[in-house]
Amino acid sequence: MKLPRPFRKRGPVGQAGVVLIEVLVGVLVFSIGILAIVGLQAFAVEQVSDAKYRLDASMIANQYIGRMWVDQASLGNYVTADQAVAELPDGKLTITVVGTSDVTVTVAWTPPHSGVEHTFSQVARINPAGG
User: Fold this and answer.
1) Angstrom distance (rounded) from CA 108 to CA 120
2) 118, β-bridge pairs
3) R_g (Cα) of the chain, nearest Å
4) Short-list 3, 120, 30, 128, CA closest to 73
5) How many folded domains does the chain comprise?
């Protein structure tokens, strides 16, 4: 005797396509994870670049202050405004001398990934020899 259609037992036909959906969801989760890792890597590269620019600016300022310590007699000759700095993107160097011994060295640059200017300033008091 043959049962009417609604009473027939459904076999594996009711599960058709479930494996395909599971695979698609797995690929989606994997893709989102890979995109997150790529974004994290891009962020890390950007941060390393910013750190290198800050380090370069610090080194430039320290080099100029070191030169001024050696040549204390002519501090006024080091005064400059917006002098180009080749080591940094759109780099500029400004040196001011207040009085006879207070020196401020400011290095400015604009990183390529942002349009915001960054600055590093260092202040030193260069006392005359024996003073």
Assistant:
1) 6
2) 109
3) 33
4) 128
5) 1
Element (H, E) at 52: helix 18-70
Average pLDDT of each block of 10 consecutive residues along the chain (131 residues)?
59 71 95 97 92 94 92 86 91 91 93 89 82 52
Residue 100 pLDDT:
80
Containing structural domain, residue 41? 17-125
**What pLDDT is attached to residue 42?**
93
Which amino acid belongs to residue 23?
A: V
Map residue 107 onto helix, strand or coil.
Answer: strand
96/103 Cα distance (integer angstroms) = 6
Cα–Cα distance measured from residue 6 to residue 67, given in angstroms and rounded to the nearest whole number: 95
Residue at 29 is within a domain:
yes
